[in-house]
Amino acid sequence: MNLELPTPESRDSASLVGCIANRRSCREYSEAALSIDVLSQLLWSAQGITGSDGKRATPSAGGLYPLYLRLVVQRVADLEPGIYEYLPDTHSLKRVGDHIPKGAVHKLGIGDQPWLEEAAFVIGVTAKLGDTVRHFESQLPQGERGARYVYMETGALAQNVHLQCTDLGVGCVLVAGFDDLKTKETLALRSDLEPTALLCVGSKRNG
Length: 207
Ligand SMILES: Cc1cc2nc3c(=O)[nH]c(=O)nc-3n(C[C@H](O)[C@H](O)[C@H](O)COP(=O)(O)O)c2cc1C
Description:
29% of the residues lie in helices and 20% in strands. The chain has 207 residues and is an alpha+beta fold.
């Protein structure tokens, strides 16, 4: 059974200019758990449905929406640690994997990136890369256009999440230096999905 998430806020909050000015990568997290409301808000900012026509918070080339979110939950109140898939249509989570062994998330980073393990949760951004490349095959440069679009969408999504984290006062860092094969394995990805980014989120260690 899918787990319904709390309704996200769409009120006016801190000014956008303030969030842009104050956004910083944060790699030091406390051991505090984050609430499911924070998780819900960030997933909505990333891929939530914001239009009556099904359009989403993040723009998408040709409206294909090739991005899929896989979540590694490490410390979220009232949510079992494990791996979840975000379902935008119902703004809910589907549990797809059990708690991953200690140290496995740390090993996803290229080099030593302990913030992956210390984050309350990691949003894994994944994409139907092959399908998108095929869809835009007629556009020059052939084979590259679709991939460019996927990475642009990932960047737009990451900035939405980052700015929303700033507004909520929680720490976030975008990790694009990760081991592709290990990430596919740990996130239990279907073979048609490629990881494009990991977003670590946690309560800031010093305030
Ligand atoms: C495409 C991209 C990839 C990044 N990859 C990593 C990463 O693998 N690990 C990490 O700790 N930070 C990563 N960062 C964060 C940058 O290091 C950070 O944005 C930069 O140092 C500027 O600092 P600021 O975000 O606090 O303004 C990445 C940022 C971008 C845009």
